Structures are given as structure tokens and as C-alpha cells.
Backbone:
């Protein structure tokens, strides 16, 4: 088993970032991958010009890469922000303006998973008010995802790197998943299980897999410590992915790790080339 029986995709917002955005799909394809995912690529705007969206679609199509995951607008990411949907005022407005733009773009490229990062706590704002706003926005996002036949993903991050983000455990993220599904009745909100983030939180990864695989819509991996490629840290990622498979997970596994000082294309030696193309 190990890595042989997985559907991997490359996160083009953390790998191949030495290249301009529109060159990254072809670079991933040249490295042997047929599927990719992205954070929201236009951090300055939730509503980029249609020509920019068209150019990204063309780059994906020309490379023969399938976009399998896309974040909604999440503020400055990479940067200090961890999402916009629970941040009152302008950021919440920007998230709402992005919902249909992101969903329509996802539909145009056949992407079936949209990740909605919750956003940091804000000084002087009642956390309960932020959670209420978050639920309103997540309901809108879930309905937009449902309109295009997609899953809405809710992600837990890790407390050491994201101390102001409230969803820093699997149960905390699952609670939001349940709240959204209860509010919409659609059942299309799922957990984004990121093994790196959960390990940084000190969670029992086999237990998380056992309890929540059925509620999981997407998986991401990086080794720990260091957030590098598998084999650069201490996590038994092959064994954990085996557990996920045995628990019934058949979805994508996003490679969301840092290549370090070398070109991204050289960071995949842990994964034999025949296993990079999604079957």
C-alpha cells in the first residue's frame, strides 16, 4: 500500500511558486501530475477581471491538469490572514462578493471542492458575533457549492502557526461542518483533514481518521516538523494514508508542503513517477 493507492494532487499555491501562476499547471504536468489545487490566487481581489479567470482556465486546460480544489477568497494568504468569512465589515463583504465568482470558476473547470477558511478572531469583536456571521456566510457558500455539484470544505489549522484562528482541532472543524449542514439541509459541508496541521496540534491522528473519515471531503499532507515533503520529518504519512483508505476514504490527497531550498520539481522523489498521475 503506502503511497501506491492514492489520488495525489499538487497545491500550486505552495509548490512551484518560483514560477508565475500561469506557468505552474504545466510545471506540475511536466513533473508527472494530472491534478492540482489552489488557494484563491488573487489575494488582492475577490472579483478578478474575467480575462484573468479565463487565462487560468486556459493554463489548466493546456497543461491537461484537473483543478480538484479551490479556496474561496481568504484575505492575505500567504500572509497574516486565515480567511475572511468571520471577519466583520469589509472582509466579510469581500468573501460574499467572491462566492459566486469562485463557484462559477470552479464549475468552468470541473472543480468539485471549495475550501472556506474561517478567518481569525478580531480584537474587540465578540467571538459569538463572529461565529454567527461565519454561519451566515458558510450557508451562502454551501448553497453556491451545491449549485455546481461541489463540496464545501471546512479546515482545521494549527494553533502554533495560526494562534488567532478558532478552528484548531478536528472536533472544532467538525462542529462547524455539522452546524452548516443543519442550517442548509444540503449535507455538502465536509471536513478538510490536513495531517500536518492536526499533527502540529498534537492530535491523535489514527483516532481522528477513525472518527472522522466518513465526514472528510479532502485530505492534505506535509511532514512534521518543517512542513516539508514526506520523509523529511517524523510523520508516518504512508501509514496514515493507508488508515484513511481502510476507513473508506477515496478522495484526493493534496500535496501542500514546502519544497525548501530546491526547485519544486525536485521535491517529489519520494513518489515514483507512475504514481503521480491521478488514476
Residues:
Amino acid at each position: 500500500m503506502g503511497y501506491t493507492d492514492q489520488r495525489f494532487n499538487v497545491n500550486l499555491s505552495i509548490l512551484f511558486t518560483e514560477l508565475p501562476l500561469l506557468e505552474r499547471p504545466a510545471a506540475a504536468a511536466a513533473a508527472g501530475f494530472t491534478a492540482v489545487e489552489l488557494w484563491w490566487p488573487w489575494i488582492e481581489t475577490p472579483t478578478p477581471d474575467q480575462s484573468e479567470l479565463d487565462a487560468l482556465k486556459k493554463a489548466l486546460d493546456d497543461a491537461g491538469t484537473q483543478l480538484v480544489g479551490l479556496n474561496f477568497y481568504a484575505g492575505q494568504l500567504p500572509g497574516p490572514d486565515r480567511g475572511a468569512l468571520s471577519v466583520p465589515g469589509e472582509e466579510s463583504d469581500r468573501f460574499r462578493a467572491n462566492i459566486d465568482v469562485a463557484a462559477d470558476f470552479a464549475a468552468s473547470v470541473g472543480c468539485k471542492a471549495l475550501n472556506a477558511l474561517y478567518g481569525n478572531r478580531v480584537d474587540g469583536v465578540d467571538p459569538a458575533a463572529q461565529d454567527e456571521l461565519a454561519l451566515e456566510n458558510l450557508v451562502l457558500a454551501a448553497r453556491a457549492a451545491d449549485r455546481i455539484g461541489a463540496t464545501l470544505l471546512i479546515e482545521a489549522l494549527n494553533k502554533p502557526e495560526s494562534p488567532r484562528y478558532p478552528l484548531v482541532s478536528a472536533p472544532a472543524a467538525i462542529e462547524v461542518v455539522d452546524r452548516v449542514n443543519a442550517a442548509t439541509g444540503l449535507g455538502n459541508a465536509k471536513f478538510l483533514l490536513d495531517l500536518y496541521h492536526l499533527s502540529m496540534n498534537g492530535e491523535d491522528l489514527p483516532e481522528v481518521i477513525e472518527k472522522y473519515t466518513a465526514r472528510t471531503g479532502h485530505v492534505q499532507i506535509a511532514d512534521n516538523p518543517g512542513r516539508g515533503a514526506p520523509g523529511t520529518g517524523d510523520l508516518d504519512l504512508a501509514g496514515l494514508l493507508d488508515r484513511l483508505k481502510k476507513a473508506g476514504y477515496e478522495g484526493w490527497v493534496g500535496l501542500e508542503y514546502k519544497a525548501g531550498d530546491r526547485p519544486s520539481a525536485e521535491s517529489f522523489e519520494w513518489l515514483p513517477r507512475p504514481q503521480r498521475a491521478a488514476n
About this structure: The first strand starts at residue 7 and ends at 11.
